[in-house]
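Ligand-bound model needed. alpha-L-arabinofuranose.
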Amino acid sequence: MKNFKLVSAFSLWAVSASCAFATTVGFSQVGSESGWRTSFSEAVKAEAKQRGIDLKFADAQQKQENQIKAVRSFIAQGVDAIIIAPVVETGWKPVLKEAKRARIPVVIVDRNINVDDDSLYLTRIATDFTEEGRKIGEWLMDKTQGNCDIAELQGTVGATAAIDRATGFNAVIANYPNAKIVRSQTGEFTRAKGKEVMEGFLKAQNGQALCAVWAHNDEMALGAVQAIKEAGLKPGKDILIVSVDGVPDYFKAMADGDANATVEYSPHMGGPAFDAIDAFIKGNKEQSKWVSTTGEVFTQETAAAEYEKRRLR
Ligand code: AHR
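Prediction:
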């Protein structure tokens, strides 16, 4: 009897110890539209592997309906937790309620969600997109003394990274009467679309000068660089190029003089997301609703050295 008690006490301890960490986590990722996104997916996968987590990864190909299907499938599989990097902000409430009913914690990473009940998710790990837009806007206004006709390549419509980056940038240039956005269209965060839209901008300008391209991510900025070169102009000189992300290809473009500045957005959000899940499993059910990380502005001056540091990472 004594032995039985000892054995059962040990198994109870073993069960509770083995439950103190997440073992199976579903991750619904936006897609693979940019170099930044690919680095982010790889970083989460590497972090999960290091922690011995079975990560169920679903690429939504930039479609919210695919994300909702993936989340429902994670719920049906009974995962310990779900991580969502949402494509757009709206339309999340019903599926988050399903996760809550199944008692599965949800961590939001990167872009935000727009829900009136914040008990539907545990926490959000992301940069301050408004601050990013503000920082790059300030850099550009400083560089041009506030005289600038700007072409804007917007990110995906309805995505926080597009909405908030535009808000931050616009708030800065509003203080400069000779700075204005003269062209604006979505390039859906991809290089191909960024190039296509920039070609359209240049055609529509019909030889009238543009001072700068403000792209909501590096990938579209790199597409614009190509379009500007093909039009016989010099990106980085004839037209300044500013954006956000800090991917190796963009550092290379800055080192080559083809782009001017970017705000770094670290893709290493897997660690804090898994930490939040583990804390939840250990009993910390009420967590701060936003864990923010904001990067700094990088320019041509340090680009070559930064590229060397990053290209083999
Ligand atoms: O939501 C973050 C943005 O999404 C990144 O800046 C961009 O590269 C990605 O597609």
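The chain is about 45% helix and 20% strand.
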